[in-house]
Amino acid sequence: MLRAELLKLRRSHLWLIAIVLPLLAVITGSINYFSNPGALTHGWDSLFSQVLLFYGMFYLSIGVAVIVAAAWRMEHQGSNYTMLRTNTRRVVSLIAAKTTAVSILILFMQLILVVGTFVVGVTFASHNGAPPLKYLVLVLISIVAAVPLVLLQSVLSMYLKSFAAPIAWSFLGLIIGIAFSFAPGWIRDLGWLFPYSLVSRSLSLISVATGATGTSIDMGSVVTIFLSSAVLAGVFLIGFVRVFTNREYS
Asked: How far apart are CA 98 and CA 244, in angstroms?
């Protein structure tokens, strides 16, 4: 089933989305980096901090929403949905296959992001040497953080027949996620249990303000991200199965 889902993605135009969105993040972050030479003076750290800031706040979540909506679109055709409702095991297998396929595409997006930032740093910023390995680790961690978002967008994409509707909901989620980031105290902590905010925070484990040299990944936050991802993924998976095996669909 996974092979079939990967084949569907390969035959679609989603690979173009997976290339364009991270490159837009590289362009946006690079413009901000070169526009603030006085404040952003820490080489690779400063460049990556700006790229990841825009990628985590906007481009990654939108990319996930578009890819998931396209991946589930065909399930609304013909008798696919009826088959899902009558076979719980098939539902779980299909969710697992689609989530894995989408995660592989997200990995591709992350690699494009890292390579694109490297090219900008070497070509236009004259940075010497390879970028710190911690940023590659960071984007890999963000894939884990994106799994609950993939499942949530899957629920929306199956529940809503429209291709655009779940993507529109993702914009609302982005706004709420940004609000969590600037909220005070315990309200901000709730963002660890909000998928859109979780994705953004996974890419902000290293200082995103100035990218100060010597900063490292906060391992305590990494543990929190993994635990939150596991809890949210379990909740959304259970909810997905219950909704689509019990709901009357017209």
From this structure: 15
